[in-house]
Structure formats: C-alpha cells, structure tokens
Design a protein that fits this description.
The structure holds two protein chains of two kinds. Chain A is built from two helices and three strands; from the N terminus they run βαβαβ. The radius of gyration of chain A is 16 Å and the shape is elongated. The longest helix of chain A has 16 residues. By secondary structure, chain A is α+β, with helices and mostly antiparallel strands. Chain A has a three-stranded antiparallel sheet, with helices on one face. Chain A has one domain: Mth169, Chain: A, CATH 3.30.1280.10. Chain B is an alpha/beta fold. Chain B is built from five helices and eleven strands, in the order E-H-E-E-H-E-H-E-E-E-E-H-E-E-E-H. Chain B has a nine-stranded mixed sheet, sandwiched between helices. The N and C termini of chain B lie close together (9 Å). The chains are: A alpha+beta, B alpha/beta. The interface between A and B is medium-sized, with 12 and 18 residues.
Chain lengths: 78, 216
C-alpha cells in the first residue's frame, strides 16, 4: 500500500522558504495572501490492510519523518 | 588519566580533520569513531561531533545522522556523564537526537552565513571553554543555524542555566541570540560557531583553543 505523508511547518515557526517563495510570486504580480512550503513523502508499505499500513506510516513519522517542535504531518492512502 | 577523545564521523561530516587536529594541539589523543560503530560508555574522556552536511542534510539537517547506529553509544555515554560537544552540524545532530533541547532551522535571511562573530558567555560550561573566556571571537559557517525553541521554553532554558552563549549580533534569527546550549546535566553542549577554526593566530584568532584545552 502506498501512503502519502504531508509534512508542513508549524504556523508559529517562521517559514522562511514559504516567505521567500511568496515574495517572488508577488514580485511577478501574482496575487496571493500567504504561502507555506512543506514536503511530501511517499511510502510504499508492504501491507494490504489499510489501518495496519497507516499505523506503520505513523510509527515512521514519529521515528524520523517529522520533528514535532517545528512540523506537523498528515497521512493519506494513495 | 584517559586522554582519548572520540571524533564521530558521519557520511558528509567535513570539519573532522580540523577538530581532530585541535584536540591533538590541546595535548589530547583524538580517535576516529565511525557512524556505524558502537563503543563502551566509558571508552572516551570526551566526544566531539564535528560540523558538515551529514547525510546531505536530507529530510532535516542532522535528522538522519541522529538515527545512525553510533548514536546509541553516544546516548549511553551522555547518561554516563561523558562531556560531548556538537559543533555546527554536530549541534543539529544532538538536537535531533533529543540530547539537547530545541532545534536549528534555516537562517531567517535564507542565506548561508559565513564570517566572524562575537560570542558572549551566559553560563559557563563545566567542560568546554576556560573559565576566563567570557567573550570569544569565532567563525560561523551555516545555512541552518537559527536556534528555535517554543516561546514558553525559552525562559525555562535561561532559568535552568542551559543557555551557554549568545551572539553579540544575531546572524541568523536565533531566539534570544542563542548560539550554544547545554543539556540539564551540563555535560552535553552544542555550539553553532566553529572553535576548531580559531586555534592559532594565523587563522585570525585563537579563542577556540580553550574549548579543547579545558578538557585537561
């Protein structure tokens, strides 16, 4: 089963990448109020059961894929 | 007295030779430790995690190195009371390994900052840096050196005397100008500037030497 992990910077942490992208878009006349940059990770997990696959992905997120001080994550089955 | 100091090398560590040579200059015996090694908690009188770009800074700086096999031994040594100093990327690794509080994120300028900084000591480390060294000039070289910790934890960090030193002028947006911190037991420390790059006058300064000689 394929699981997607969306990792985003926490709102209270200054997202310097998002700010830089936002400035560039604005400088080119694009209308936007805010931009944040995170990352997307695809996990191929050898597991047919949806709940078990999600549990394994959660374990990986807690182990290494996100740092709870600065990031949050969401999972989705692909 | 055991004078053997472990210098841990991860894939992509690149300040290792400088740290190795500074330890030697201080009259101690450096020894390489590979990221896949395991060692006994009392094998080294101190441990250094040098700077660089371990594992290509992939995922988050220090995140993959913090989960390397050698870190199990580093955690055991830290509990044993062994002095451990992480410099630059080494600092990032110790934070990611939860051996130090907080985390280091991208500089607020988004630029790699390279130059000399003035450092003010807030709290003396029992192991690293002589007691006379209340101000030091050291070089920095980092893209992700902005120290971050939640607002409600900053005061606690100062109250618990875990803030080791602060920048005279903030080069990266670190909270409260923090450049170096210690763990609760004060045997594990992290420093963003590079003491190993300032150990002789020809380098532009020698304030960094005492970060190594103080172990004697």
């Amino acid at each position: 089963m394929k699981i997607g992990v969306r990792v985003m910077p926490r709102k209270e942490v200054l997202d310097s990448q998002g700010r830089a992208v936002e400035r560039t878009l604005r400088a080119h006349g694009k209308n936007l109020s805010h931009c944040r940059v995170g990352k997307y990770i695809e996990l191929e997990i050898d597991e047919k059961d949806r709940q078990k696959a999600l549990a394994k992905a959660t374990e990986m997120c807690e182990f290494a894929l996100h740092n709870p001080l600065i990031e949050t994550y969401e999972l989705e089955v692909l | 007295m055991n004078k053997t100091v472990g210098v841990i090398r991860f894939l992509g560590t690149n300040c290792d030779q400088d740290v190795f040579s500074a330890i030697k200059q201080a009259g101690l015996s450096p020894e390489w430790v590979c990221h896949q090694d395991q060692f006994d908690k009392s094998q080294y009188m101190a441990l250094f995690l040098p700077g660089g770009f371990s594992h290509g800074d992939y995922l988050r700086c220090g995140a993959l190195a913090a989960r390397a096999p050698v870190m199990k031994s580093v955690v055991e040594a830290s509990r044993h009371g062994t002095p451990i100093l992480g410099i630059c990327n080494g600092f990032q690794i110790l934070c990611e390994a939860n051996l130090l509080p907080g985390v280091l994120v991208r500089n607020n300028s988004l630029r790699f900052r390279d130059g000399w900084v003035g450092l003010q000591r807030v709290q003396q480390s029992p192991q690293f840096g002589s007691d006379k060294l209340i101000y030091a000039k050291l070089p920095i070289a980092h893209g992700e050196g902005r120290y971050y910790i939640e607002d409600d934890q900053v005061k606690k960090l100062f109250d618990d005397e875990q803030v080791w030193c602060v920048y005279e002028r903030n080069p990266n947006g670190s909270v409260e100008n923090i450049a170096g911190v210690m763990n609760e037991n004060k045997n594990v420390a992290g420093l963003m500037p590079h003491p190993e790059r300032a150990v002789a006058d020809f380098m532009g300064g020698s304030d960094g030497l005492s970060f190594f000689t103080s172990l004697l």
